[in-house]
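Annotated sample (chain length 83).
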Amino acid sequence: MRIVPIVLMGASGFNIYKFLFFNILSLFIWMSIYLSLGYAFGKLAEVYFGKAKEYYFIAVGILFAIITLIFLIFKIKEKLIST
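Output written by the structure step:
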């Protein structure tokens, strides 16, 4: 979402110093929001998702298998339709 106002400001001939001011102000606002949320919920997320580390490789393997199966199904359907 930060890109859209920047493009609009540039296209409308916005003053470069105003642009820099608002861009830096926006940067500090977003930075403070994300840092605050990360600090507040970091430990909470570690408690809830701490066990997820044990199942990471299994989940990635299952996800890879599902994506491969979907890809193969579409390729087989495409081949059957074209013949």
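Annotation: The chain has one domain: 3-82.
Annotation: Residues 3-82 form one domain.
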